[in-house]
């Protein structure tokens, strides 16, 4: 198997794992509420990453001490934005949204990241990019207000907050990468600090876990290990093996389709007209932005 095939396979498995988190979170939510589930996902992922980092002999999968005291603040911020607040928004959003609705709104994260990079680092966005951004958020507006201004679902606002939070995490991760940290270190330390933010929910977590059935507990372990842990390693490996990063990042646009299919199979969720119409507009906007939204380097 050549590197290109390996990269594409790793990328597809990653987005498949990410997509599975949407319907499974809704299923688990019946027995384990949003905040305890957030804590469990963070701590399970952190323990997995730390174990891998301690036993691995590969330079790209080793954990090192922080190279500077100032880096601690970056990792605390990564834990807050990429794990604690991110998973709270994820879990709270899915209390009122279908898997399809949540995954489509979450797909706006790359666009929001680019907007933040424009204002923070002055990275350029061309006219096609701005039109694509307007189009993507017009799609969100369609989903939010299809049945009138007062029909807005609170879950949609949680998912928009999630996209903003993940965008800040992406920028922080980029800064940590520039400082020489590998992806496993960023995820491991980020998940650890994310767990610390959520440790106040430990008593509630213990109570709800003691009442949960075995399928729910196994599903929680799966969410912590696979969509939260293993997927990050596979994603980093896919980017490393690919000739062009865009070949891999374009797989992100498959996530809403997979989530919708899984939501139907697991929960019998059928997307309504608002989700289909708004989702098409959002995905077209995000894809156009990804392909044509930034000036090409000379």
What does this molecule look like?
This protein is mainly alpha-helical. The chain has helices at 3-28, 34-55, 71-93, 99-106, 109-121, 127-145, 154-178, 183-198, 202-211, 214-241, 245-249, 255-267, 273-292. Helix 2 crosses helix 3 (71-93). The longest helix is centred in the C-terminal third of the chain and has 28 residues, at 214-241. The radius of gyration is 19 Å and the shape is globular. The mean pLDDT is 87.
What attributes does this structure have?
mainly alpha, 298 residues
Question: How would you summarize what this structure contains?
Answer:
The protein is an all-alpha fold. It is 77% helix and 0% strand.
**CA-CA gap between termini:** 34 Å
Strand proportion, as a percent range, falls in under 5%
The proportion of residues forming helix, as a percent range, comes to over 70%
H-E order: HHHHHHHHHHHHH
Largest sheet, described in full? none
Q: Low-confidence parts, pLDDT < 50 over ≥5 residues?
A: none
Radius of gyration: 19 Å
Mean pLDDT: 87
- Tell me, what's the shape? globular
Quaternary structure annotation: single chain
The SS-based structural class is mainly alpha
**Count of individual beta strands:** 0
Number of helices: 13
Q: Topology, pairings included?
A:
Elements: H1 3-28, H2 34-55, H3 71-93, H4 99-106, H5 109-121, H6 127-145, H7 154-178, H8 183-198, H9 202-211, H10 214-241, H11 245-249, H12 255-267, H13 273-292
Helix pairs in contact: 1-4, 1-10, 1-12, 2-3, 2-8, 2-9, 2-10, 3-7, 3-8, 4-7, 4-12, 4-13, 5-7, 6-13
């Amino acid at each position: 198997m050549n590197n290109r095939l390996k990269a594409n396979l790793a990328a597809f498995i990653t987005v498949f794992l990410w997509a599975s988190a949407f319907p499974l979170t809704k299923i688990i939510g019946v027995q384990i509420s949003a905040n305890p589930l957030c804590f469990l996902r963070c701590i399970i992922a952190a323990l997995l990453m730390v174990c891998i980092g301690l036993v691995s002999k590969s330079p790209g999968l080793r954990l090192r001490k922080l190279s500077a005291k100032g880096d601690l603040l970056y990792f605390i911020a990564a834990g807050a934005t990429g794990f604690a607040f991110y998973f709270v928004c994820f879990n709270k959003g899915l209390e009122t949204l279908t898997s399809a609705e949540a995954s489509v709104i979450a797909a706006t994260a790359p666009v929001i990241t680019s907007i933040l990079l424009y204002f923070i680092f002055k990275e350029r966005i061309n006219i096609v990019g701005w039109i694509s951004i307007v189009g993507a958020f017009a799609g969100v507006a369609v989903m939010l207000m299809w049945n009138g201004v007062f029909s807005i679902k609170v879950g949609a606002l949680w998912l928009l907050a999630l996209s903003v939070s993940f965008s800040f995490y992406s920028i922080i991760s980029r800064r940590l990468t520039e400082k020489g940290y590998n992806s496993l270190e960023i995820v491991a330390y980020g998940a650890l600090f994310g767990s610390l933010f959520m440790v106040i929910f430990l008593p509630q977590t213990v109570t709800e876990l003691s009442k949960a059935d075995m399928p729910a507990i196994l599903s929680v372990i799966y969410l912590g290990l696979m969509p939260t842990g293993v997927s990050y390693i596979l994603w980093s490996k896919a980017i490393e093996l690919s000739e062009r990063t865009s070949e891999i990042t374009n797989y992100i646009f498959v996530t809403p389709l997979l989530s919708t299919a899984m939501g139907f199979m697991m929960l019998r969720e059928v997307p309504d007209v608002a989700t289909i119409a708004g989702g098409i507009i959002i995905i077209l906007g995000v894809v156009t932005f990804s392909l044509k939204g930034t000036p090409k380097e000379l």
